[in-house]
Amino acid sequence: MTPRERRILIVAILSSFVAFLDGSIVNVALPAISRELGGGLTLQQWVVDGYLLSLGALILVAGSLSDTFGRVRVLRVGLIWFGVTSLACAVAPWGAALVVARILQGAAAALLVPSSLALITSTFTGPAQGRAIGAWTGWTGIAGIAGPILGGVLVDTSSWRLVFAINVLPIAATLIVLAGVREPERTGPTARIDVAGACLAVVGLGGPVFALIEQGRLGWGSPIVYLPLIVGLLSLAAFLWWEARAPHPMMPLGLFRARNFWAGNLATVGIYGALSLGFFIFAVYLQQVGGLSATSAGLAGIPATLMMLFFSTLFGGLAARFGPRLFMTLGPIVAGSGFLLLTLAVPPVDVWRTVIPGIAVVGLGLSITVAPLTGAVLGSIHPEQAGIGSAINNAVSRVAGLIMIALAGTIAGEQLGVAGFQRVLVVTAALMFAGALVSWLGIRTPKSMTDAGTPAAGERT
């Protein structure tokens, strides 16, 4: 790896690390937030889904911005914006203010993830790209799972507000490293911004998510629930219609002609919907029902973190050599089995016997899955479209997560208990197994694995 490649990989990892860390660190702080600001499960859902909503709705626009204005420039703006909105979350005086700040923070996060991954795919090729994606996946996966550990310590020793304020430190470090990165030269035309598509996506996602969260409190018969649902679904239909006809769509539907692209994104729905739902309910349950402290609940995720750290790069490299299909099939099965093991964690919760084994199996499954999944999706499209391709895949994962978290109250019930926790984990495992089935049936190994950045002959259908 050259010094330039090493610097770009560090920037890509740090940029995404901030976004993924914030997306997970808040989970263990939810009980403390609701104790101080009120709002119960509804506020907890909105604190998580407000972030995922703007992230999922705007990440496609961010991918276009990345391809249009350059990955380095978009990263720099996103990092500064993320720092400002993190401080706004830290000082929020009431629940509604926190939710608004989280929505703005998610918009900033949307600028980080596709640009960082596009930097990797435009810099590395072949097996080196697979290893780089594996390293990126491992470290960002660690952020997603290790976040609760740091969050628990901050909540128990100080305040949940530090969970947001601490983002300033890695942001400052990333901006320093980013100052030495030059924008890669472009070899194709720049994209244009699809404003109409962006507006339809925001309304199309926001309406149904609002309805799913608020129906538990107001009921489906309330116009405050069913009207946003109807408007949102109509907007989603209009979004797909517009994207098929727009001169410069922010989600080019032609990308889905690549078999591994559409199959990988379909598998992403199950896998990342399961991850968001499973870890959301896991962190809340251990504290509110299991009686663990925020720190203990966070520490329970350490085995998964270690698995991601040790094995993600290995499986990313193996998938680049042998193809992603086998890994994308076995990985979700292993992770789903781990979630089923966690159903044994009933009060009094024995962390060593019922939590640690299950979470370790989940981490192993994620190590097998995530890097091959990312490589399969982005390896099926042209490198010049890496920004929007990464954005689409990330949008799919975030939207899947936000919908499943919005459904958490419906699955678990208004008051989270053992039975509700177990129902949620069974649904989580089922989603993982569905992702494995889609991968086995849909993913194909390119005929040549020597050019990971270009679709092999016959890969498109």
Features:
mainly alpha, 2 domains, 18 helices
Describe the protein in words:
The chain has 18 helices and no strands. The protein starts with a helix and ends in a 19-residue tail after the last helix. The longest helix has 32 residues, at 126-157. It folds into 2 domains: 3-182 and 250-442, Up-down Bundle (Growth Hormone, Chain: A); 194-249. Helices cover 77% and strands 0% of the residues. It is mainly α. The radius of gyration is 20 Å and the shape is globular.
Look up the CATH topology of the largest domain: Growth Hormone, Chain: A
Cα Rg: 20 Å
Name the average pLDDT.
Answer: 83
Q: Outline the biggest β-sheet.
A: none
Strand content: under 5%
Q: Which percent range fits the helix content? A: over 70%
Q: What top-tier CATH class of the largest domain fits best?
A: Mainly Alpha
What is the fourth-level CATH superfamily of the largest domain?
A: MFS general substrate transporter like domains
Low-confidence stretches: 450-461
Terminal Cα separation, in Å? Answer: 35 Å
Number of domains: 2
Total number of beta strands:
0
CATH architecture of the largest domain: Up-down Bundle
SSE string, helices as H and strands as E: HHHHHHHHHHHHHHHHHH
Structural shape? globular
Instruction: Give the helix/strand class.
Output: mainly alpha
Helical run tally? 18
Write a compact overview of the structure shown.
The protein has 461 residues and is an all-alpha fold. The protein is 77% helix and 0% strand. It has 18 helices and no strands.
